[in-house]
């Protein structure tokens, strides 16, 4: 349990008063607590042991913060006459400096989340961070938010919601192939077929030897036309089926159809269908050939399989403005230089620079430093401007590229971090779950051993005279109060907490009992499995009482029936069998302990409608006496 | 080309300012609340100075901003009941503490609620409990309201209980409650019936004194 939450325990215990009127059984006695020494001015600010001193005027400069207002009175410690704060002294230094100089600085080595917390604790808004540190602060904050967003997205991905419809299940399988084996298989199969299809497209254009009656070489595609056609058909079938399944499974079909991946899918399979539909018309076949080009878009289907490709696409999208700038400035430069070159070379004979658009080709080739050499200036002026063109080309292209590269690197590193965090998260969650179960096990242990503990103390009390106060109990920590709270909840609802194992065995027994059918057979059936451990058999004994009752009986009758158990032990001590052995010797003390803890006997008798009054009063008096001595 | 670059960079700045202003708005709307002074709170509640100091420090530690919103409240309360789901009961509790219905519990609300629960007279405590059960605050506890509360309490137990919490266990408990409390059998429990009945019940009276020395 978080340490900070311990401060809220008094609140949780106070709120338990809300259960009292509905409780059918009385509450257990709270654990006794020793009066704790409390922590609690000359303007000395003691922050976790490090003492800062300042004038009170300094602090009052900013009256809407914690230190500048009356809120600091809550932290005044009378004994040492100073203000004590249980916070980080290193960060506090910066906060105090703010009061002194009026400028708030952000220390680079501090964690952004810790710093934010301190600022909000002391009531200082981050906007007043000085200009010198504000950019850094904002950047770190943005990084942190992105990381938190990533974590949330990952969590949503990993946690499989229960009761998924088949459609949701399919969609999840398609989007996150690592969630189930069928999804993974589908993933690899589609990847394989994409590769096959792309390779077939490539191979069918390779020249493949000659036909016997022709001199010209023909491509493999024409030679083995049928084989390639079959292969193409198979691939397109698979892609079509995949696309249709995705379309069916998509939560929002309209959004799915708008998305880039689905457009790529459609473009990849369309040429085939169009080719089927079209006849061998000469006019149209030209267009048909160009359609075949679109088949190469199948290679983009790989972006579902490769994270790197997706990152590249995402980078280009996020650097759209830089790319736009690059394109725009290049276009400008091309037009300028092409015009200049055209007019410079106009004079020379047999020049290739026939028009300005023709000069575009030269400018592009020169600016990108390709330099094919198919078009070269011959005049001196042309050569001068040609060299200026190639020098400026280098500059114009080199400028936006680092921005794109840094964007790519940031996004790529983010995805790497996300992968690492995903791997670490599994171990972290396992550890957290283990510590949580330790907490609930602690309560089980408390229930088992508390009876033992209290009977010892009641032994001591019985030795001393009744009326002597304050048996020396050790200082009861937070845990015992928390256990008392859980105990109150048990009493309110008249049900008990048990741990997972026993719950499971109970479920098994219940199913066995249901199979057997009648009540009597249930009692025998529940006691028959001797193979189980002693605790389980003991529970069977208890179950034989409550099982016939729990089927639609009033709660009061359950309580009445439980009366016989009470004489031997209180319900609290009834669980572990081994407890009965040492306590059987001191029988009288057992009775007193029974009544010390939830006085189950007396309460049962009183809460049932016709409790024996005499017995109840005598139990009452017993409980009263023991109560006083316990306190 | 230089002019174009300048224009381009100006455009980028504007865009950044636009996104920043949205962020800024979100930041400034983070609530920061300071409670009344120590003297006023001493007058309003039955805690002495030292106790208020201790309470405030704990409160402020968990909620540096000075107010608890419902989600934080649910988180904190759920930490005490790891086996079950305490969020529904925490919701009802939150509404009981948030007396001015502004969606957040400030330190004043918190400490005034605690003052009633820990230092109040039995009448005040019963009043508070009635207020808790009466979800729509109309002065009557109906069976549906009580059923909601009961289900929320049973939810806190979780599923690993002995005996098993069945579907109609809360309903049965509610029936029992109404049998005891609803004297004129009109299907609702009024504040007077409630207080009368509780004052006649020894158990309840005794259990009300249980948490006197929590602070």
Automatic annotation (TrEMBL), chain A:
**UniProt keyword Signal, yes or no:** yes
Concerning InterPro entries, the annotation shows: BTB/POZ_dom, Ion_trans_dom, K_chnl_volt-dep_Kv, K_chnl_volt-dep_Kv4, K_chnl_volt-dep_Kv4_C, Shal-type_N, SKP1/BTB/POZ_sf, T1-type_BTB
Listed GO CC annotations: dendritic spine; neuronal cell body; postsynaptic membrane; voltage-gated potassium channel complex
Q: Which GO terms describe its molecular function?
A: A-type (transient outward) potassium channel activity
Q: Pfam families from the entry?
A: BTB_2, DUF3399, Ion_trans, Shal-type
A GO BP entry is: action potential
Q: Where is this region: Disordered?
A: 516-536
Which residue positions does the secretion signal occupy? 1-16
Which domain of life does the protein's organism represent? Eukaryota
Q: What is its main location?
A: membrane
Q: Where in the cell is it found?
A: Membrane
Question: TM spans, by residue?
Answer: 224-248, 260-278, 323-344, 356-372, 384-405
Self-association and partners: Component of heteromultimeric potassium channels. Identified in potassium channel complexes containing KCND1, KCND2, KCND3, KCNIP1, KCNIP2, KCNIP3, KCNIP4, DPP6 and DPP10.
Family designation: Belongs to the potassium channel family. D (Shal) (TC 1.A.1.2) subfamily. Kv4.1/KCND1 sub-subfamily.
Q: What is this protein called?
A: A-type voltage-gated potassium channel KCND1
UniProtKB/TrEMBL annotation, chain B:
Q: Quote one Gene Ontology molecular function term.
A: calcium ion binding
Domain of life of the organism in this record? Eukaryota
Tell me where it resides. Cell membrane; Cytoplasm; Peroxisome
Give the record's keywords alphabetically. Answer: Calcium, Cell membrane, Cytoplasm, Ion channel, Ion transport, Membrane, Metal-binding, Peroxisome, Phosphoprotein, Potassium, Potassium channel, Potassium transport, Repeat, Transport, Voltage-gated channel
Give the membrane topology: Peripheral membrane protein
Read off the InterPro entries from this record: EF-hand-dom_pair (IPR011992), EF_Hand_1_Ca_BS (IPR018247), EF_hand_dom (IPR002048), Recoverin (IPR028846)
Q: Pull one GO CC term from this UniProt entry.
A: peroxisome
An example of a Gene Ontology BP annotation on this entry? regulation of potassium ion transmembrane transport
Q: Does the keyword tRNA-binding apply?
A: no
List each copy of the EF-hand domain by range: 85-120, 121-156, 169-204
Q: Which family does it belong to?
A: Belongs to the recoverin family.
Q: What is the name of the protein in this document?
A: Kv channel-interacting protein 4
